[in-house]
Write a structure and sequence with these properties.
- This protein has a domain of 109 residues.
- The protein is built from twelve helices and no strands.
- Helix 4 packs across helix 6, helix 8 packs across helix 10 and helix 9 packs parallel to helix 11.
- The termini are far apart.
Length: 214
Amino acid sequence: MSGARELDDYLESQAFSSHKSSKKLAKIVREAYPIGVPAMIMKSSTDRLGKSAGYSFHLGTPDDLLRRVASWILTNSSDSQKVILELVTILWKRHGREDVALAALLLANLDFSRIGVTPWSILASSINNSEPLEALLLSIEELFRAKQNVPSDEILISWCNGRLIESHLALITAYSSKNSGRELSETIIDVLKDVKVPDGDSLLGRIKDRVVQS
């Protein structure tokens, strides 16, 4: 049996009532992550855990399987947007690499016209005070891929005036926006110049240089 079929069988066996509880869904997806993942890949990922900087676990679940899990949740919880938003928060708090990637997929594909908030406000409120750069990039790239509205200048400025991690979120969002062909205002560029990044030749430092250069 293929990994995808095995995963589908597991998800289909779950009670429909589980979609009414974010906590139940969090438990189900944690058990789903290893399904269909070769043991050697999981062992290798476990061995790398100490080097994966900031994740509570990293099982090596392929992107296509994570997308199947996200699709299952979004399809069966379409009338429970609040439950999915609560799940996103739980996943960020638990903070496995697969949790972060799944949270990004869920957030990017919700219908925010029905919710009354923006995906960017949910993302900013969900992230911890310290995050791997990859974790922020995963979410930002998925939001852009899903063609969610770009955060306004006011939102970016509020992030720069908030927690340090939020100023880094603003910096990376502006970088991704610029890479996708969008122009940054002079106001935003001036604000981003003051964002604190690690000393030396850090990736975040290089991102800042590319964002603020003329």
